[in-house]
Amino acid sequence: IRRIEPAPARADKADDPLDVGGVRVIPNLDLPISLAANQKLSLFFIAYPQAAEKPRVSLEFWRDGKALGKAEPELPAPEADGRIRYVGTFPIERFTPGSYEVRVALSGASGRSEERAPFTLVP
Question: 3-class DSSP state for residue 75?
């Protein structure tokens, strides 16, 4: 996440996937993240689990083929259309500058799905 700002007042904001709980998520698609300016890394994703299924999520942080840390946060309840929008922050003060990957895995009775996203930390 590059930043979070107040969501604009619009009648159709329920259809906006980046409007989460009254705030608008501005994604960071490829900019390096400054360790000096950020003590935490913010992540956003949308999960589409099978109907009536309470999925589990696992977040893993990797560098150079090695797992550095893992979190299993509680997901919010699904919205009326079934999607789950998640925003979370994770400490990065022990990370050093370099290239990383976050792996988000969603699992439940119907199976497992994983997505990966690279990010770069700079001094």
Answer: coil
Take residue 104 and report the two structure tokens written for it. Answer: 């988000």
Which residues share a beta bridge with 53? none
Q: Which helix (H) or strand (E) holds 45?
A: strand 40-47
Closest CA to 99 of 80, 120, 69, 70: 120
**CATH T-level fold of 30-122:** Immunoglobulin-like (2.60.40)
Check: CB of residue 92 under 8 Å from CB of residue 77: no
Question: Where exactly are the structural domains of the chain?
Answer: 30-122
Q: Tokens 């009536």 identify what position?
A: 52
Q: In this predicted model, what pLDDT tens digit does every residue of 44-78 receive, in sequence order?
A: 999 988 877 789 999 999 999 999 999 999 999 89
Q: Is the pTM of this model over 0.70?
A: yes
Specify whether the backbone of 22 is left (phi greater than 0), alpha (psi in -120 to 50) or beta.
Answer: left
